[in-house]
Amino acid sequence: MSASEEILAAFTAGLGIENRPVEFAGAGTLASAYAVSDFAAASIAAAGLATSALTDDAAPVTVDRTLADRWFASALTPAGWRLPSPWDAVAGDYEAADGWIRLHTNAPRHKAAALGVLGVPGDRAAVERAVLGWAADDLETAVVGAGGCAAVMRTAAEWSRHPQGSSVAGEPLVHRAAGEGGPQSAHWNPEPGRPLARLRVLDLTRVIAGPVATRFLAGLGADVLRVDPPDWDEPAVVPEMTLGKRATRIDATLPVGRDALERLIAGADLLVHGYRPGALDGLVSADRRRELRPGLVEVALDAYGWTGPWSRRRGFDSLVQMSSGIAAAGMRWAGADRPTPLPVQALDHATGYLAAAAAIVAVGRMRREGVSTSARVSLARTALELPAEEPVDLGRLREPAAHGGSRIATPWGAAELFEPPVTVGDVCLAWRRGPSDLGSAEPRW
After folding, report:
1. DSSP string, 4-53
2. Cβ–Cβ contacts within 10 Å for residue 48, how many?
């Protein structure tokens, strides 16, 4: 059994679906201390198998490893224009008095929290000097306590002994729970080759993992409406993470915004959200969501897991890599003098495809049995399925060989979209709506 097949077996077991044979074609291109290319191919294959289960003939699934790597990096290449850097000028790894720490400062409020704790302006040299005066654990605690995002670099052994690492290790890969019954969707009308045609998906996710999940659903025909707060932006990833979706803005902290959000929930078939445990309930409680839409299927994602002392902690892929030992293992593997992350944000992408698979399984069950299902996944738990690489160096990320693709229009200019990395029989995985700017649509179905 290949590494991709072994990882896929763990993914399908977690999803509760049949682990049928998948054809893996092409070659992996990602060099790392971990088998990232196999990880990428397996997670996409899991979404493919979930899709296959919706078809009448259990359609065969093929994954192109080279294209899987490409989609884990960036599926879309601007033609004649450039994306901004995905990182704020202050974001990154810093040497503290006793180790390394990563500050995640892309969001203005997270940057303000870190700078406030350090007592310096937003100048990288000043931040470097200030961090050197802190013990890494103390700074992590202070930044997180101030509402910011930070992670100390730990080894895998240290993470396994940490209360949060231990708690996550005891969680299932996919938390699945059957809920109440409800009416069949009045909107979902599968077509030949488009198994999720007009399924209404309310997307309350941002950055990468959640948007990857809903992008895959949009590729199968789902009507995906993304909702962001008024002040949120992520310009480096919006073009590819809004592919196939409409995007609106709502301030759900205001009565008028909460009413608008409740109307969207009432009209949805599937809710995908990336809120930390309990955070969505502060806007619209679970009881209220069930009242608004009986039988609503919900899929949730978070960073550090759903149990343990850090379950409510803000987190991102790069931070989980630091916490869980991935960056430390990369540093040893590369013989580097600083933390070495994976060559792509693989925890985000793999968790996104797992979330998409869980959503497809859940809506399929709703259609067959009339029972709603909730599912939860996390970056930290997904990370435990990432196996060590064999001692072979594939070189740095290589541009895939010519695989074709298509020219698409975006609000920022034309772009090249790579071919999909997976085929499922005669299913048409295609995005008939191009990317959209945040807030460009009205908050209605």
Report:
1. HHHHHHHHHHHHT------EEES-----SSB-HHHHHHHHHHHHHHHHHT
2. 30
Taken in order 249, 252, 253, 255, the sign of the CA dihedral is positive
**Per-residue model confidence as pLDDT tens for the chain (445 residues):** 899 999 999 999 999 999 999 999 999 999 999 999 999 999 999 999 999 999 888 999 999 999 999 999 999 999 999 999 999 999 999 999 999 999 999 999 999 999 999 999 999 999 999 999 999 999 999 999 999 999 999 999 999 999 999 999 999 999 999 888 888 888 999 998 999 999 999 999 999 999 999 999 999 999 999 999 999 999 999 999 999 999 999 999 999 999 999 999 999 999 999 998 999 999 999 999 999 999 999 999 999 999 999 999 999 999 999 999 999 999 999 999 999 999 999 999 999 999 999 999 999 999 999 999 999 999 999 999 999 876 545 444 455 444 568 999 999 999 999 999 999 999 999 999 999 999 999 999 9
Q: How far apart are CA 62 and CA 90, in angstroms?
A: 41
In this structure, are residues 428 and 51 in contact, taking their beta carbons and an 8 Å threshold? no
* Residue 310 φ/ψ, nearest 5 degrees: -105, 15
